[in-house]
Amino acid sequence: MAKPLGLLIDLDKCIGCYASVVACKQEHNLAPHGDGVPFVARPQWMKVHTVGPLGTYPNLTMHYIPRPCMHCAQASCIAACPSGAIYRRDDGIVVIDETKCTGAQYCIWTCPYGAIYYDAENGVAGKCDLCVHRIDQGLEPACVLACPADALTFGDMATIEKKKDIYVIPLPRDVKPEPSVQYMKSR
Amino acid sequence: MKRVGERGEGKWQQITWEEALSIVADALKEIERNYGARSVLFHGGWGAHASGFEALMIRFASVYGSPNYSSDAQYCYFSNWLAHMSTTGIPGVFLGAADYYNTDYVLQWANDLAGTQYGPVWGNVGYVIAKERGAKLVVIDPQFTATASKADNWIRIRPGTDGALALGMMNVIINEGLYDHDLIANWTVGFEELKERVQDYPPEKVEEITWVPADQIRTIAREYATTERACIYPSFSKLGHYTNGFQAYRAIACLIGITGHFDKIGSNIYTMPCWRYGTLHNGSAYEAGSFKFADTPMSTEPHAGLNVGKKFSLVERVKDVESISDKEFPYYKEITEHVAGRSVVDALIRGKPYPIKGWFEMGGNILMWPNTKRFLEAFRKLDFIVSMNLFMNKSCEYADIVLPACAYLEKEAEATCMGGRAVMLRSRVVEPPGENWDDRQFLIKLAMKMGFEKGFPWNSVEEEVNEELKPTGLTIADLKKEPSGHVFPEIPMEYEKFKVTGFPTPSKKIELKSSLAEKLGADPLPVYIEPQESPISTPGLAKKYPLILINKRLIVFGHSQWKNMDGRLPWCYEQIPGPELTINTKDAESRNIKNGDMIFVESPISSIRIRAKVTEGITPGVIAMPHDFYEANANDLVNDEHSDPFSGFAERNGLLVQARKSEV
User: Measured between alpha carbons, how far is B364 from B387 in angstroms, rounded to an integer?
Assistant: First the structure.
């Protein structure tokens, strides 16, 4: 593999403005969910979760956590797909080939990050592909471009400079997916 | 569209623009004949500021003969503006510009920059820049906001007591000699009186008022005063929504004044780099030109920028006509060209000082008025209502004539230089759907219809824009050749310019004791007055309504305009849970309210139903909700008889309420 491309997300900077979410939906032409659709089922390839406020005054914390596909080196979705529709590109980006997807949804169940969504209209699974159509033209992903706080950095995860402590999303199971999307924060 | 049923019934007949112009022109003429032109209130909504037709609209009102123009600025920045004008002679929004790029200490006061919508130009990520260079960020706010979550210190304060906190800080700074001695001696008036005044506010007493511990008051006072590069970023508008808002902003302005933390690197600077060229909207470019204004932010002529705008808006024509604000808020009217919010409420509901008969609205929504239900009752009895809007909102529902406006991307030739040193021409991106008209086109055509050729000597929007562009020496044709804008040379930042020019106040100094505040009828020294409703000023009321309600913003909406429309900007709306009220864990427990419960919020005026979010992120005894959802409108709860006596701002923050679980 040439290099794992990914995102480095600075949680000190993210203000939870959802600009990346909207930019993502616009770029990938994803419909608004409409009323009454549970949060987990909303077709959002990028989501921003608010964690907090936690603790008690004066020791309160609150973080906004952008949640794209984590583009794991050990991607359980690839192994789970019965039709071989999901694969990892040479640059490390995990993509779904919609023409091969049969809508089995095993990937959705197995993803430890809940990053894959079912597109009922077309009967296929969908998720963040890090905007490969833009990357292949030498452009940055739409979310990175939209972020007003400069919280998202796109690049080669092997060489990208990580100035702060790396934050790892705790997973409910004993899995080590080795994601190419990483978080850092100083507090 | 023309109303054919009863007001609010929703029965409409489609008419042509020609018909609409005739109906509006006839109605205006009839009101003028029967009651005088002053009986028509002109109201410009948010769009007026954003789309640059405000000056043109005031010009139309002036030519017609009405001095009564109000806008959404009446609950936005005017309170802040007045307070800073009274202190340094420089508008507050400019002094509010904190030099994040070079600062070491930020006091973010009631201002959730991270959680509100302004883009990088206005510095909503400025704290990121400050933090990256190692600055300390302290947030003063009753709510644990997005900004507070990024801060080193969150100071929770009782709503409406910010003025007391500023006075308490000044007590510490003055008594410990931490003020700027040289500046006080040479560039201020009233320091001795202020020194005497702040003795009324020792930290222990201020702790009782504000709920901020005395030690914390001392700490932030010392830190702010002694850090060389320190700034305060107060909210443009939030404190203005308390009935003591003007004096609170005055106290903060004086606090900045005595420490000398202004017009220096890393402090509060008069103009952010992007502001230095002024703005082309509001007609401020006309005649003297925005560039001249911006070039001389320290002009010794008070309100230099506004006077420039006044030449375009022709307000001189109606200077002898009594406006609804002339008696109660004369100074407010004089410097802003607008009538105060309180005056509109009094005129409409109580016929004071004289009744309003016609309502001419462009942008805006009646949901924003305090005690909305009562306001609506009076509103629907008006003789004539015309509303030009982007959406069929609540105002339109009660109008006689509804006119469809263009969104900014549907307009041709909007010249702007807001936020940069380039004059740009915004061009049409999409053809206006249906029969949408540019607001300016409507005003120009209506003026023609009414025979106002003298004040409106233009046949098209282009001619009008060229007129506005005159002082820049540019035309639309020139700007079309430079699609990314005509860039003027950079003006280098000059600090402490006042040492050459003096301050644009009557004394040419910082007026800690303010002659202009005195003119407004206010205490010339900063003072803390309890909000009109509070546990201290109205203990009886507080027994029945023990919680203090304040407003909060939702980041996905620009103000409230996208909240109340069909479809509601679905991509944004899906990010938020809908109207939701935050309540402290303790207050929720004692009321048996659980996270996600539907609750009733009751004030002496009205009650609304809303979902509760139980959190530690708000001061106990305080609840907060976003404003202007039609299904849960916070303004319904507001008492229209309570307002700031100097700015006329309604008491939208700090009102007393009770919350209880809804069984349905």
Answer: 9
- Count of beta carbons in the 10 Å neighbourhood of residue A45: 24
Residue B50, phi-psi category: left (phi > 0), alpha (psi -120 to 50), beta (remainder)? alpha
DSSP B550-590: EEE--TTSSTTTTTSSTT--HHHHTTS-SSEEEEEHHHHHH
SS3 B598: strand
Burial of A3 (0-12, 13-18, 19+ CB in 10 A): middle
Instruction: Specify which residues B107 forms β-bridges with.
Output: B138, B232
Q: Three-state DSSP class for B114?
A: coil
| DSSP labels, B247-261 | HHHHHHHHHHHHHT-
Chain A positions in Cβ-Cβ contact with residue B120 (cut-off 8 Å): 148
Q: Which tokens is B494 given?
A: 């000059």
How close A162 gets to chain B, by Cα (Å)? 14
Summarize pLDDT for B122-172 with one digit per residue, the tens.
455 677 778 888 999 999 999 999 999 999 999 999 999 999 999 999 999
pLDDT tens across the length of chain A (187 residues): 567 999 999 999 998 989 999 999 999 998 887 666 665 566 789 999 999 999 999 899 999 999 999 999 999 999 999 999 999 999 999 999 999 999 999 999 999 999 999 888 889 999 999 999 999 999 999 999 999 888 999 999 999 988 899 999 988 767 889 999 999 998 7
Contact with chain A for residue B122, Cβ under 8 A: no
Cβ pair B157, B168 in contact under 8 A: no
Query: Which residues does chain A have within 8 Å of residue B150's beta carbon, measured at their own beta carbons?
Result: 12, 15
pLDDT tens-digit series, residues B54-100: 778 888 999 999 999 998 878 888 888 889 888 988 765 555 567 78
How far B372 CA lies from chain A's nearest CA (Å)?
27
Q: Apex CA B132: angle with CA B108 and CA B128, to 5°?
A: 45
Helix H or strand E segment including B362: strand B358-362
CA distance B119 to B586: 36
Q: Which of B272, B280, B180 is nearest to B227 (CA)?
A: B180
Global ipTM: 0.92
Q: Which residues contact B319 (CB under 8 A, 6 or more apart)?
A: B67
Would you call A12 and B575 a contact, using CB atoms and an 8 Å cutoff? no
Crossing angle of the two packed helices B78-87 and B245-259, in degrees rounded to 10: 40
Residues 6+ away with beta carbon under 8 Å from B402? B1, B3, B12, B386, B387, B388, B389, B392, B396
How many helices (H) and strands (E) are present in chain A, helices listed first?
5, 10
Cβ–Cβ contact B150 with A under 8 A: yes
**CB B591 within 8 Å of CB B598:** no
Is-contact B594 B588, C-beta < 8 A? Answer: yes
CA B481 to CA B466: how far, in whole Å?
A: 15
Structure tokens that stand for B512 in this block: 């800690």
Contact A150 B128 (CB under 8 A): yes
Give yes or no for A170 touching B (CB within 8 A).
no
CA–CA gap between residue B171 and residue B175 (Å, rounded): 6
From the list B35, B45, B36, the residue with the least C-alpha distance to B388 is B45
DSSP state of A132: H
Residue of B nearest to A164 (CA): B132
CB nearest to A55's CB, from B114, B120, B616: B616
